Amino acid sequence: MKYIITILTVLTLFLSACKTTEIVSGNVILVRHAERDNGVDALNDVGKKRAENLAKMLENTDIKAVYCSEYQRTIATAQPLCERLHLEPIIYDARDIPSLIAMIKKDYSK
C-alpha cells in the first residue's frame, strides 16, 4: 500500500505541475527501488535480482531516458536497464520533485 501511495503522490505532483497548454508525449514508467538491506543504501541479493528482471522486462521498450534519485539503491535498480539500453541515468535530487517534473516536461513536451 505504501508503494501505491508513493506512486500516486508522484503522479499527482506531475499532473498538477502540467499546464493545460503543454502536452507531454509518451509514457512515464515509475519504478520504486528494489529491495535493500535494512539501514543501508544498497540493494540486497533479492533487490539485485529484481533489478535484473526489470531490465529484462523493459529492454525491448522504447525508453528514451532513465531518471534516478541520488540514492545508491535507485541507481543500482536502474543500472542493469541502463546498461542494456546504453543510457546514462539522469540523476535528480529526491527532495526536489518539481525540478524532476520540469526536466521531464522540458525534454518531452510538444
What does it look like?
By secondary structure, the protein is mainly alpha-helical. The protein contains four helices and two strands, in the order ααβαβα. The chain has a two-stranded parallel sheet. β1 (67-69), α3 (72-85) and β2 form a beta-alpha-beta unit. The longest helix is centred in the first third of the chain and has 16 residues, at 2-17.
The overall pLDDT average reads 80
Question: Within the largest sheet, what's the order of strands?
Answer: 1-2
Shape: globular
Helical fraction: 40-55%
**How many helices does DSSP assign?**
4
N/C terminus separation:
34 Å
Question: What is the N-to-C succession of helices and strands?
Answer: HHEHEH
Low-confidence parts: none
**Strand share of the residues?**
5-15%
Secondary structure category: mainly alpha
Rg for CA atoms? 14 Å
| DSSP summary, beta strand count | 2
Largest sheet: 2 strands, parallel
Descriptive tags:
110 residues; 2 strands; mainly alpha; 5% strand; single chain
